[in-house]
Structure formats: C-alpha cells, structure tokens
Write a structure and sequence with these properties.
This protein has 79 residues and is α+β, with helices and mostly antiparallel strands. The chain has 3 helices and 2 strands. A two-stranded antiparallel ribbon has the order 1-2. The protein starts with a helix and ends in a 7-residue tail after the last helix.
C-alpha cells in the first residue's frame, strides 16, 4: 500500500459509509470520462492539515477538477 492509502485507512472511522466513499471515486471517474477533464476526489479538510485534520468519510469528500485540487494544495480555509 502507498503512504496515501495508509493515511486514508487510518483516517477512516468504523462508522464510515464505505459504499458512499467508493461512489465518490466512481463519480470522479464518470465526470472525467464525460467531460474529458480529469476529476479528483478531494478531502475538504485535508487528512494531514497544519491546524486540523479531516476524516476519510463521504461528508469530507468532494469531486473537483484536478486543476482545482492542485490549486487547493491540501489546504483548508474557513469561509
């Protein structure tokens, strides 16, 4: 397993809806195929944030373009 996979595993609580998480990754793949633009699953609150760390659960995931994900660069800002 990769370091990223290990971080995700450690950040997944037992109550997580794993099917919903898998569905997010399927949605990113669907959008990529539909638009021709690479989409990623992003952790809204990063798993390894400086001030706060998020969980690997469906409520902390969003499908965004790879370009948006790179701009975000594992940061979380309060809005």
């Amino acid at each position: 397993t990769t370091a990223r996979e290990q971080r995700c595993k450690q950040a997944t609580p037992i109550w997580a809806d794993k099917e919903a998480v898998v569905a997010m990754y399927a949605e990113a793949q669907r959008k990529t195929l539909e638009t021709g633009i690479q989409h990623d699953v992003d952790h809204i609150i990063p798993l390894q944030g400086k001030l706060v760390s998020g969980l690997h659960v469906q409520h902390n995931l969003q499908v965004i373009t790879s370009a948006e994900n790179k701009r975000k660069a594992a940061k979380y800002t309060l809005t």
